[in-house]
Amino acid sequence: MSIPGLILLTGQYGTSHEDVGNNLSNLANKKLKHLSRVQPISKFYSIEKELWDIGGSSEAFFEQLNDQDRDKIWLQAFLKIQRQIKQDNPLFPILSLHVVYLWKERFFSCVDWDILTTLQPSVIVTIIDDIYDIKGRIETNQQSAVRMNEEDRSLFAILSWRLREIHTCNLIAKHLYVNPEHFPSIDNLLRKENISSSINLNELEQVFGKPLPHYVISVKQSLDDFYRLLFERKTIRIYYSFPISEPRKQNDEDYFKNLRNWRLQMHKAGRLGWFYQPNELKE
């Protein structure tokens, strides 16, 4: 097993972060209890839960007078969780946060990349879901999701929001860790006049550390899939494509029953270190 360390669980509103994070933490505690009898195995933390507590409500947070005030509240929430993680000292803390916010047709972020490095995250998992499902959750589950204006709940806005979340998490994964010994070279690089023609790729490779793994996974995946992705990192991963839309429309339960059985066979084969031949898969 490859130890993941701190897990960043990202994604836009409406993707059930809290359920995924808590369930994943509980499963890790159950399966990995042999690792420690004293130190907690895994624990779930939520930046947004602290934000709403400090700000009074989600609306109060977003209706701050300016970005600086929102950033201060975000920093307070982060520092509180940072202290909690240090006090609890779990082997695998799971931190949930929404990297990109959408409020009154405006996208923005409060994430402080510099302070995020203090938690030393080792992997980013961005949860996505069907945009129709996200729209429905936002509109019906007002206690756990932000009340948004109708223009913010359009399908186009939700799709744009998802793309921005994924893209920003990609940037974080690639550039979160910077080599402090070479950091001044970034400033020197940016001050050069013809920067586009003067960029030295070898220099940039020295400045930035090794990229974080970044996975984009659907919330509809099983909890076991989340667990294997993070805690069984050396397992061989093969993507199999199935005609799924038509069986869903037809509500073909026999198809899904056979599909689930086949997936279980493949998981078993993977654990044993071998795979079925095509003719065996048909049996």
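Second entry:
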Amino acid sequence: MTRRSLKLNPPYREIEYSDGKKEFWNRLTPRNQIDLSYLVDMNIGDQYVIVYEIDGKILGFMTFLDQGDHLHLDLIERNELIEESSGVGFNLMMLLEIIASIFGYSRITLSSTQENIEYYQRLGYEIIGSSFDNPEYGSLTPMEKRS
């Protein structure tokens, strides 16, 4: 599958190598040790890394996979070092729905941590399978949203 070109408007853009040097910390950092420099190398092929940037500060990011018939949200996090990052996750979720529509997809999938299931349900996602254990994130529940 050929990587699709994304034409994003600020504050959204694909991650760049210079972002790898910027500070970023979120609630998952202690578990997965993912920082922006790690994410730079993930933005290839069918995997996309989108950042939310204002005034040169990365307020949040999301990573997703183009599965050929739907998008799969991999990670979405806000930068807890920056107070203005509140609400960034919701904005990135709305962008993901727009990207899915542009790609011609009517479905988005994700695997939610237990503490986020209700949040995703409020956004219209439904549980589609049994929870499973993940060594980094604990119990994950598969969910999807159809448009």
